[in-house]
Amino acid sequence: MVYIPASRYEEAYQKILAGAHQTNHTTTLLVFASIDADSICGLRILTSLLKRDSIGHKVIPVTNYQDIQAASAQVENRQIKSLVFLNCGGQVDIQDLVQLRDDLVVMIVDSHRPFNLYNIYWNEQVLCLDDGDVESKMGELQQAFEDVEFGSDVNEDSDNEDNEDKEEEDDDEDDEEQTGTKRQNGGEDSIQTRKKRRRAADMDPDEFIQMQRRRARKRDERAQNQSLIQAYYTQGSYHGQSCAISTLVLCEQLGLPPTPDHVWWATIGATSQYVLQHIDADGYAVVVTKMRDLVRRVSSATTRPAANGSTAASKSNGHLDVLRTDSEQASVYSSQMPLDSQLENSADSATNGKNIDVFNPYLEIIDEIDDEGYAAGLNGSSVASVASMGRLTSTRLIDQQMEIIECGELKFPLLRHWSLSEAMRFSPYVATRLATWSSKGRARLDLLLAKLGLSKAEAQAPFLHLAPDLKQQLYRKMADIGADYDMSDSTYRGFVRNYGWRKSNISASDMVLALLALLLHGREPHKTSDVARGGFYAAYDALAQYETLHKGISGALDLQRIVVGQGVAMLERQAVKTLRAFRLAMLGDLEVSGTADGNNSGPAAFSSPF
What is the pTM of this model? Predict the structure, then answer.
């Protein structure tokens, strides 16, 4: 058994750790990471574990199997003791891509299915992390694979027959020496045929019939096993457990307690599977159940006690309403952290010489470097100097931690970062149901907004500026009237992270779209053969740097405009052709004005980094 069950992930990592301790070389591990959001989130979690254990490693972004083969020369370095493949390598025999030494350990963390059977049943150096499918559902397939690969051949006979073959072979060799000739082509086939005829002629008829039946039974069993294996490979591609969640489970088994960052990255990785339609709604519901428990654990561990001695997390309802928005959920936390009288607090603190955290929930969202008061507070300036700048202050009960909140989400991309009208207009989900490329479809969209209780001005205003009661009724009314517009599944459970009072909340689905935009447009210029490493590292940094993430959000907004604009352009120009089994559209030289600045974007904007 070379697959690792979900309960024993740490065994694979212990082998990597043992290999790292065998040498003093700075780099003993190569990490091949696929260029996708889930892989980047898993890489973030894994590197934190590697840094804790002081394991020198090198990350190699890959887009295809040719990239892995091109980097295989680095594996020949005998200082390299371990290889890790994140979201790649599971569907092919890894020995065909990399020459494995006897002292090399390979760990595969791949959500793509089906697995290559040689990876999970053949080579003990290759360790595939299983999410439960292999252990619980593939017992019969394992037996079939072992019978085909290790079972006896259908033409093998008993030991007595083998002895007879040996005697006959000696006789044949004597005959060849006497004649002085040796057949070069087809000689062995003729000898084997002559052996079978002699054995059949000398064998008892009943024994011969039994032998033929045994051979027929073996042939049938072998054919059945081969059919079972073929059916496994031809069932189609699907996805298993998220790579990010697998690495998070690995960290927990190794005694590394989950941090808010780890849980958030795992949430993004799992959400990417749902956003990209790699898993269905039922599979995503299972993921939400798992992540809900982790979110509550890290929230209860990081929330400061309120004035009455209880924690803000303990005040939240364990069973969240399906349509509770992030603003409603956040109010549970903020209600436990009231603001003091700002000016009185400033004066008292200045008198007592105490440092008070700078806080002003009414400031506009501006760059931190432009906020003198915020910078002064971060540098530890006294409250008197900060208050003299006209900044408001508060007590230390106000917690600015980046909390993760479970809430209801709408299938309108990047809703918190532009207006509701734009989010619905440039949503593929809405466009395909209301046909918004036509005047009739746009009229239906306007009617839907009116039924939601929003005026045209409110629908075109930034979503964050809407009144809280309007946001709450939006989620509820979409659940009520969505079925009338073929959008009964427009709401789903999601997670949102609070990035502080100075910045807007960002949902996990927004993070996925931002990472994809960075992967697509963040590549290094004039280096087309660099396998999009520029975009890969930009997306990697965006998980921890808000400035880079903000660029990804802007790129995702432009990308949504381009996608919908390109689709509308193809429909208007009748570029979509209906064939017998599918529809076909050639992008050709079509150009659309999709970005916010009005720049034209053509098919080059759709060049996938994957």
Answer: 0.78
